[in-house]
Amino acid sequence: MIKMNTGSSVMLLSGASFLLLPACAATSYPSNSEFASLEREVRAFEAEVFASYNGGNAVLAADYYAVDAYVFIPGQPPTLGRDAIAANISRYMEDRNFRLDYVNEFTKVSASSDLAYTRGRLSVTYTDRQESSVRTIDSNYLLVMQRQPGFGWRVVEDISF
Questions:
Q1: Which DSSP category does 36 fall into?
Q2: Is residue 47 part of a domain?
Q3: Are strands 65-72 and 152-160 parallel, antiparallel or unpaired?
Q4: For residues 36-42, average pLDDT
Q5: Residue 75: left if φ>0, alpha if ψ -120 to 50, beta else—which one?
Q6: Distances from the Cα of 129 to the Cαs of 97, 126, 132, 134, in angstroms?
Q7: Residue 143 contacts residue 157 (beta carbons within 8 Å)
Q8: Among 142, 89, 149, which residue's Cα sits nearest to residue 120?
Q9: 72: CB partners within 8 A, 6+ apart
Q10: How confident is the model at residue 27 (pLDDT cuts 50, 70, 90)?
């Protein structure tokens, strides 16, 4: 056991503590070029997610989401789980005027490379049944994605605001 005087306090460190220090220092993070590659990968995945909404197949669109994903849309209760997300998407796809467009404004990948998020602007065009007219709503979005073993990236949180 080693006794260290750190000014006003005394620390006692055992030999086992020193074994942990090199392991902490040896943590490897992706290089800048690896981060850039991961960000391109995440943006491509995001493009697939949004394109799937315009594709007409709610089950395929929902497959981009984790089994336990949450979707938050203003004015609606949160949607939990891939099956509920597919049911919600299918309601939108029944509208022949439904269209979803987006502009990515920011992409970030975690140092661990297994979490990422994107944010940007979103336009949703749909038929307003009360007014019998086509409307477009502009909003913002935040997608949180997780790399899941054997499945690649999946959306875990989808927030429109």
A1: H
A2: yes
A3: parallel
A4: 95
A5: left
A6: 11, 9, 5, 9
A7: yes
A8: 142
A9: 78, 79, 157, 158, 159, 160, 161
A10: low
Q: What share of the chain is helix, strand, coil (3-state, %, to 5)?
A: 30, 40, 25
pLDDT at 45: 98
Sign of CA dihedral 59, 71, 123, 35: negative
For the chain, how many residues are written? 161
- Residue 21, in any domain of the structure: no
Give the CATH number for residue 101.
Answer: 3.10.450.50
Tokens representing 115?
Answer: 């979490």
Whether 25 is covered by a domain: the verdict is no
Residue 2 covered by a domain: no
The per-residue pLDDT for range 82-136, each reduced to its tens digit, is 999 999 999 999 999 999 999 999 999 999 999 999 999 999 999 998 888 999 9
Q: Cα separation of 48 and 63, whole Å?
A: 11
Residue 61 belongs to what domain range? 31-160
